[in-house]
Amino acid sequence: MTSTADAPAQQASPSAAPGRTVRTAGAAAERRLAFLLCTPAVVIMLAVTAYPIGYAIWLSLLRYDLRFPQRQEFVGLANYAAVLSDGYWWSAFGVTVGLTLVSVAIELALGLALALIMHRTLVGRGLVRTLVLIPYGIVTVAAAFSWNYAWTPGTGYLANLLPDGSAPLTDQIPALGIVVLAEVWKTTPFMALLLLAGLALVPDDLLRAAQVDGAGPWQRLTRIILPMMKPAILVALLFRTLDAFRIFDNIYVLTKGDNGTGSVSILGYDNLFKAFNLGVGSAISILIFLCVALIAFLFIKLFGTAAPGSDLEGRR
Amino acid sequence: MRARQGARRGCAAVLGAVAIAAPLLAACGSDSGGAALHFYTPADGATQYAQAAQDCTKAAGGRYRVEQVTLPRQADDQRLQLARRIVGGDPTIDILGMDVTWTAEFAEAGWIRPFPPDAAAEIRNGTLKAAYQTGTWKNQLFAAPLNTNTQLLWYRSDLVPGGKPPKTWDELIAIAGRLAAQHRPSWIEAQGSQYEGLTVWFNSLLASAGGQIVADDGTVPLGAGRSGAAAAKALQIIHAVATAPGADPSLSQRDEGTNRLAMESGKAAFMVNYPFVLAGIKENGGGSFLDGNGNPTTQNTGRKVQDVFRWAPYPAVDPGTPGRSTIGGINLAVSSTSRHPQQAVEAVECLRNRANQLRNAIDGGVPPTLESLYTDPAFQREYPAWQAIKQSLDTASVRPKSPAYQSISIVLSALLNPPGEIKPAATRAELVDQVQRAVNSEGLVP
Prior knowledge:
The complex is a heterodimer.
Chain A: H1 2-60, E1 62-63, E2 73-74, H2 78-84, H3 87-120, H4 125-137, H5 140-150, H6 172-199, H7 204-212, H8 217-245, H9 249-254, H10 264-273, H11 278-302
Antiparallel strand pairs in A: 1-2
Helix pairs in contact in A: 1-11, 2-11, 3-6, 3-8, 4-6, 6-8, 7-8, 8-11, 10-11
Chain B: H1 2-28, E1 35-41, H2 46-60, E2 64-70, H3 75-87, E3 95-99, H4 103-108, E4 112-113, H5 117-124, H6 129-134, E5 136-137, E6 140-141, E7 144-149, E8 152-156, H7 169-181, E9 187-189, H8 196-208, H9 225-243, H10 256-264, E10 268-273, H11 276-283, E11 289-290, E12 296-297, E13 309-312, E14 328-335, H12 341-351, H13 354-364, H14 377-382, H15 386-394, H16 405-416, H17 424-439
Parallel strand pairs in B: 1-2, 1-3, 9-10
Antiparallel strand pairs in B: 3-14, 4-14, 5-6, 7-14, 8-10, 8-13, 11-12
């Protein structure tokens, strides 16, 4: 039985084989072409990303201070030890983590509210979307300067609302509050836009069925809308967390990192461009890079966020 | 066919190359007016520097042209731009207008050239000693002094006993305490914000008490001995100024500009600050009106802060030794990337000559570094406080000379701010540790 069953298969295979080899040859040629077509992009990516990252890693292993060109030498991981044993790194790290958690949490709540409004708006939907998106369209540095002036006594309408003699940008906690405000104002629209795309995934039938079954608005939100939107929420959170962790421009313009408001990026900048210490500065940059990679890894592996470019379902 | 195409392409390439190179060739312009020397200056006073560049171009008679280029307003941004471009080998930087604190850093890194001995001797001749000191590193002149600056004590003659200024910080603090008890203006204004000004205040106090932040051998002697005692005294004075009864509650956020405004508002009795405050109070209409007790009032009493605004030399720490204010200013150096170093030295000598320094002093408000100008009637007319300024400059101190000065200043001002929270003994121990690490360029800067 087996032989008879095998026979047609064996017969079929020789006839199929030529076709298959033709297909594989064609596929191989196509693959070669695909690689060829990709090559310029890959070369450019290597030149503009891999090379600088590799160079920064190399610099971070050197004692390399522009002010002491003769004292350049290989020191292994000493720069990392110097950074990780320094109080300034840990206070900047604490500030960065705090800013990230607070601003992303507020952005998520506000962004969801805005997304629901935009989704439910019946009239003037285009106008509402445009209005919501305006802050996101303004250059961060320009916006930060207007916040700066607004909160500076003498020039600012917001500072004038405070008791006389208060300069909120010169105290740690009020200044960090203003940084969070500027960040939230600026990037909530981005969050709202990503969440709006997620809202489109929630079928109306399901909501109507739930309504018929007696689910109230809150139950519909927490039991249907949010679970259905989970992939979109996680992607939005991932993007915003990565961005928020690397915060630089708002702080640079608002406080320059003075009075304990510096993020890790500000610390890296100061060590590179004020102290001209390329070794320590690069070590800080690499550590930031590792933190960002870790955040992305946690989101994708633990929460099952769909990585950009993979299928939207996500993997566990 | 192929050959012709190739020829045509070659022709186009040559044309293209010529088109790109032509402006560059013209820029070299050795035929039109000699070597082009680019003179990079801070944005403050750029007008006067540009005029000096024009005058020196004329005086050179075709040997070189000086073209003034303006750098950013902030000293940090100026330093960053100059350092980056010189490290990158930019040959279009010839003459640098440098802050006095950058000399050691730029010299040690090989970004600027030492002046030839004969030029250095000529520059030394007739230049204020402390100003000359700021331009030297390892016994060579790297930067020729152009402008200088020094702080004075500014006080209210209606608030001091007998109208006579206090001579020491201890007297100053005692008088302010009595004024506070009488509910009269009692603030002592100094630079307490976290920036270079706070480092300068500390350095002035330390030098007045006979100490220094970094010794010649690169060690930090603040822990013991004479400098240790001086550091303890300096920290104690800063702490007292910030916390004494009647102290300015915003001292930890004050810089030169807000100090001046506090004085003009009539709430302050004393201030250490640069001479620009004298022109400033005139510009602001003489400051606030004062009542019979010397307190500010909105009523027109016919008496303003300006009427009782006086100056005196920088306060001393020890009664018999004059106070030593920290010197500031701008020096001129020749970049190591310059293609015309000889002409650049010549141009530097012209740019800091008597006529140009007088113009900077009168139009730009920055005191000159040539000693003889202080007896010039035109200068004395413009600077009513010239005697006190000269006296302060004669006893002035310089900031620590170290290639790592920037890091030293950053950690110092971070440790000393807020001044009210200084714990003299503990802060001093921390200073020794952190400043030594900064000098060795170890660890991070905040």
